[in-house]
């Protein structure tokens, strides 16, 4: 959860990357804590990169080979948004998992070198507490000519996150840039009428980012709002965003919906209040499904779910905690004749409860809204079916009216290999021309 990711869904569907030339990537697990990968790329000339990854914790549950990795987890598509209550449940689960690990404040090291340019980049991530994390990124460019100097860029992030908000403090050595990002997440599960155990999947997020370059005295500002919910009749998710940059004068509005398990549609409209320029973008993705994994006995996939929420609520069954609703024996009127209700003795009838117990029982049942339960049940069923789907490939398409271009991309699995290909076509001229195309092959063991 970060303001940087607030527009992730429309960016995944409208601004996806197209491979350039031919590229092959191979990754492997060296030890329980270290991983390495190598990449070869052919575009005009042969180049590549070598990267190394190390974590203080064992990531055996997070690392999977390309043969067993779920395809939806590596393809950038619709992003399911968790509500604040689901965030709290997820944070409690992470804290419980940390007790089994030796290092409560783990760290991560990452480095990558490009050849033959000897371009370097790296990252250090250190967990300071359960809600605080520090990230250090650096880039070093070599000296290509005698008159040029080495250029090094250092960026420091201090991130604080909980179930309600996320804050990022940023410093970059470029122009001595200072930045502040904030994201606040609201949800209808904060309502007083919400009953215990009920989790609403509706979420409203609002955030902003501030930038200021100390050397050039240049400011920067942007703000955005995101609304995510599920259609009550089918449980299909949809997301709407509105972003504004007052300094540049740009306004962006997006609408993303997943009308089916194997399809996603997105539209975006941009407008500049200073130049009156506008653009309309459309994009969609189609997945090919070969079948479904069998559901677990708990009616939930054992794999990592995208919107994880262990609070089980269904429209047919609902657990009502009534162990604290038993009447006070001291307030019960002792009678010789016991009332018979439905052929059984009712020793503690409803009308002899005290006022607090009456209020607690009525509040519990009044908090159950059939419409909300139906929406939540449909949403959970949609997510569970999506997580159990065995996708084999995906096709993406995006087009821009103002730029007059169109992009196509295909991603899929062949044996234990992940394949990605695409083409970018420019239609500004009388004859459309191919601006970029390529093929990428990935393998990890």
TrEMBL record:
Biological process per Gene Ontology, one example term: mitochondrial outer membrane translocase complex assembly
Bilayer topology annotation: Multi-pass membrane protein
Keyword Membrane: yes
CC terms in the record's Gene Ontology section: ERMES complex; SAM complex
Presence of keyword Transmembrane: yes
The organism's place on the tree of life at top rank: Eukaryota
Localization annotation: Mitochondrion outer membrane
Keywords from the UniProt entry: Membrane, Mitochondrion, Mitochondrion outer membrane, Transmembrane, Transmembrane beta strand
Entry function: Component of the ERMES/MDM complex, which serves as a molecular tether to connect the endoplasmic reticulum and mitochondria. Components of this complex are involved in the control of mitochondrial shape and protein biogenesis and may function in phospholipid exchange. MDM10 is involved in the late assembly steps of the general translocase of the mitochondrial outer membrane (TOM complex). Functions in the TOM40-specific route of the assembly of outer membrane beta-barrel proteins, including the association of TOM40 with the receptor TOM22 and small TOM proteins.
Assembly and binders: Component of the ER-mitochondria encounter structure (ERMES) or MDM complex, composed of MMM1, MDM10, MDM12 and MDM34. Associates with the mitochondrial outer membrane sorting assembly machinery SAM(core) complex.
The family this protein is said to belong to: Belongs to the MDM10 family.
Matching HAMAP family: Mdm10 (MF_03102)
Domain notes: Lacks alpha-helical transmembrane segments, suggesting that it resides in the membrane via beta-sheet conformations similar to those predicted for other outer membrane proteins and porin.
Name of this chain's protein: Mitochondrial distribution and morphology protein 10
Taxonomic classification: Eukaryota, Fungi, Dikarya, Ascomycota, Saccharomycotina
């Amino acid at each position: 959860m970060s303001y940087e990711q607030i527009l992730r869904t429309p960016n995944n569907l409208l601004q996806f990357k197209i491979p350039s030339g031919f590229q092959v990537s191979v990754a492997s697990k060296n030890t329980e804590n270290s991983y390495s990968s190598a990449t070869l790329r052919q575009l005009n000339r042969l180049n590549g990169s070598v990267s190394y990854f190390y974590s203080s914790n064992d990531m055996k549950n997070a690392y999977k080979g390309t043969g067993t990795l779920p395809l939806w987890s590596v393809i950038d598509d619709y992003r399911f948004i968790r509500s604040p209550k689901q965030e709290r449940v997820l944070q409690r689960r992470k804290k419980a998992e940390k007790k089994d690990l030796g290092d409560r404040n783990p760290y991560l090291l990452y480095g990558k070198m490009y050849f033959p340019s000897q371009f370097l980049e790296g990252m250090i991530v250190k967990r300071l507490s359960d809600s605080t994390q520090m990230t250090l990124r650096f880039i070093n460019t070599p000296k290509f000519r005698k008159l040029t100097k080495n250029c090094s860029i250092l960026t420091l992030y201090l991130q604080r996150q909980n179930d309600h908000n996320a804050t990022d403090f940023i410093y970059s050595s470029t122009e001595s840039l200072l930045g502040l990002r904030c994201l606040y997440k609201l949800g209808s599960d904060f309502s007083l009428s919400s009953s215990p155990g009920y989790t609403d999947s509706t979420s409203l997020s609002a955030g902003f980012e501030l930038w200021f370059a100390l050397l050039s005295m240049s400011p920067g500002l942007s703000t955005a709002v995101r609304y995510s919910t599920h259609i009550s009749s089918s449980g299909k998710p949809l997301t709407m965003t509105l972003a504004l940059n007052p300094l540049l004068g740009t306004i962006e509005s997006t609408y993303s919906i997943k009308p089916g398990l194997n399809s996603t549609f997105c539209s975006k409209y941009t407008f500049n209040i200073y130049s009156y320029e506008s653009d309309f973008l459309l994009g969609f993705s189609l997945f090919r499904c070969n079948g479904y994994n069998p559901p677990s006995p708990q009616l939930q996939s054992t794999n990592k779910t995208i919107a994880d929420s262990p609070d089980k609520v269904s429209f047919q069954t609902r657990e009502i905690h009534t162990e604290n609703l038993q009447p006070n024996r001291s307030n019960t009127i002792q009678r010789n004749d016991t009332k018979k209700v439905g052929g059984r003795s009712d020793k503690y009838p409803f009308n002899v409860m005290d006022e607090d117990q009456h209020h607690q029982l009525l509040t519990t049942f009044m908090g159950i809204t059939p419409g909300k339960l139906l929406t939540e049940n449909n949403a959970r069923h949609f997510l569970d079916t999506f997580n159990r789907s065995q996708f084999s490939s995906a096709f993406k398409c995006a087009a821009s009216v103002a730029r007059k271009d169109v992009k196509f991309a295909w991603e899929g699995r062949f044996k234990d290999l992940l394949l990605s290909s695409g083409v970018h076509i420019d239609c500004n001229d009388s004859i459309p021309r191919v601006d970029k195309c390529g093929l990428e092959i990935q393998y990890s063991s």
